[in-house]
Amino acid sequence: MSESADDRSATADRDDDPPDMGDLYDELEELADVVDDPAERERVAAAMRTAAAVEPVGVFGRVVSGFDRGDAAEALLGSALFGIPMLVEGGTSEVGGFLTTHPYSVAGTYAFTVAAVVGILYVSDIQDVRVTHRLLGIVPRRLAGVLGISLAFAVVSMTAWGRVDWGTPVVAVAAVSVAWVPMAIGAALGDILPGT
């Protein structure tokens, strides 16, 4: 079967793009899969850590890995920037009240929030985000950090500003779920946009 002109053009366009750090990291990951010797595996792992630590010029195009205090602070700032309008908006409580009569909608809201954060961090290609550490061997630490920080900010800030009454926990949980959506999105963007 012969290649069409469009296929050849698309291949040529990809070949014309200069390689970036993500391409290097991908090649190192492929190399790590075929190396058998433990000493060589460690050398490839060291090269991957070095590639992830290289700081290219500009905000975008970096390989983002790990999750430290700086990332947590960026996630908190993003959560606050996107979330404070939800704290002062009366519609948050109204939507929360509606959700209390629709429990599947509460679950859907939480699921959407997690899916949106996963999409921003790992699917959207805003940055080349790599999973280097997992909690319990399953959940990426960056994902857990962004979701946890934004959820904690939603609970604490809505409680501190009197936006929820925990005497009626169903209403409070529903209202927090509404506020958490933009807070989690803001936390994810705040974390990866600076490119750290």
UniProtKB/TrEMBL annotation:
The chain crosses the membrane at residues 104-123, 143-164, 170-193. It comes from the Archaea. Residues 14-24 have a biased composition (Acidic residues). Residues 1-13 have a biased composition (Basic and acidic residues). Keywords: Membrane, Transmembrane, Transmembrane helix. The keyword Transmembrane applies. Residues 1-24 are annotated as: Disordered. This is DUF2391 family protein. It comes from Halorubellus litoreus. The lineage of its organism: Archaea, Methanobacteriati, Methanobacteriota, Stenosarchaea group, Halobacteria.
